[in-house]
Design a protein that fits this description.
Blueprint (H helix, E strand, L loop, with lengths): L2 H22 L6 E5 L5 H19 L3 E3 L5 H10 L4 E4 L1 H10 L4 E6 L7 E6 L21 E3 L5 H13 L13 E2 L3 H10 L4 E5 H10 L7 E6 L7 E4 L3 H5 L3 H10 L6 H9 L5 E2 L7 H9 L5
Helix pairs in contact: 2-10, 3-4
Length: 299
């Protein structure tokens, strides 16, 4: 073999080798997680930073949290595929699933199968304890606020219960309710007296009392709703194609296997207000879908 031919052969082999290395070392795509912004961004960022690190460790893929600006944005991001796994409320989860055929409900918290809303009132409002749904009629002509317009526990189900009591949205002071945007904001607005009453997620209320963000001298619970199914994890239908066969099952197993006996997993579960994640199914949210359609939140 001539020296020139030898150099050509070596160069060709080197090019092929570099090509193979560049193909096999492509950056691994990230698994993208999102959530409805139902609480303040600081808490959510802390919560999902821990969750992403733990899932990345277990699933052996980069996991990244992508915050969204509001509830509809979370639904839109899931529909377009820019989020792979989203922590939805009952209503937004149904909306997202109906827009993405094949999407999978893979888990909920141990508290989500029987979730509740609470109605709270400023202590100077004169509003007393309500003993049944019909008692919600006392909210007629009061300054009242929901949370986000797309919240299950802060708007959809509270409106449903108000409707059962014969209270229309136009019956509130000013002929319409307020929309605070989040459960935390609802507490703050009622506590400050900007609104006389409001409705929110019971777990956020319990947490706010525990950590001092809600002052029982200024704001109190006047009614606790009947139970309904709420929050859940919703996964894209194409995860096995993108991350490998069996990935969705491994993701579900990881979440369901978390224990409050582990310091890291226990902290994550604590931030979620739960002791563990449990299996969930689409049929649990059939009532949410019906109420959503009846109230015009699902077309």
């Amino acid at each position: 073999m001539s020296r020139r031919k030898g150099k050509t052969s070596v160069l060709t082999a080197l090019i092929i080798f570099v090509g193979l290395v560049s193909c096999t070392n492509q950056p691994q795509q990230s698994f993208r997680i999102g959530a409805i912004p139902d609480q303040n961004p600081e808490k959510l960022n802390r919560q999902y930073k821990l969750l992403c690190a733990e899932l990345s460790r277990e699933l052996k893929v980069p996991v990244r949290y992508k915050p969204v600006t509001n509830y509809p944005a979370a639904v839109s991001a899931f529909r377009t595929g820019s989020l792979d796994l989203v922590w939805f409320g009952g209503l937004t989860g149904v909306q997202a699933r109906l827009q993405k055929p094949g999407a999978k409900v893979i888990a909920q918290r141990d508290i989500d199968a029987n979730f509740r809303s609470v109605f709270i009132a400023n202590t100077t409002s004169g509003l007393k304890q309500i003993n049944n749904i019909n008692g919600l009629q006392v909210l007629n002509n009061r300054r009242f606020t929901f949370g986000s317009e797309s919240s299950t526990s802060g708007r959809l189900m509270p409106q449903y219960f108000l409707h059962q009591a014969g209270v229309k949205l136009s019956d509130f002071n000013g002929n319409q309710p307020g929309f605070s945007g989040s459960h935390d904001a609802t507490i703050a607005l009622v506590q400050s007296g900007s609104f006389e009453a409001g409705a929110l997620n019971e777990r956020v209320w319990i947490s706010a009392i525990k950590n001092g963000r809600a002052d029982p001298k200024k704001v109190k619970v006047i009614w606790r709703s009947p139970p309904y199914a709420d929050y859940h994890w919703l996964a894209q239908p194409n995860l096995d194609q993108r991350f490998g066969s069996g990935f969705t099952d491994r993701l579900q197993s990881a979440l369901l296997g978390w224990s409050d006996q582990s310091s890291t997993q226990g902290k994550i579960l604590e931030l979620f207000g739960a002791r563990r994640f449990i299996p969930a199914s689409i049929k649990q949210y059939s009532k949410i879908e019906k109420v959503g359609r009846d109230l015009g939140k699902i077309q």
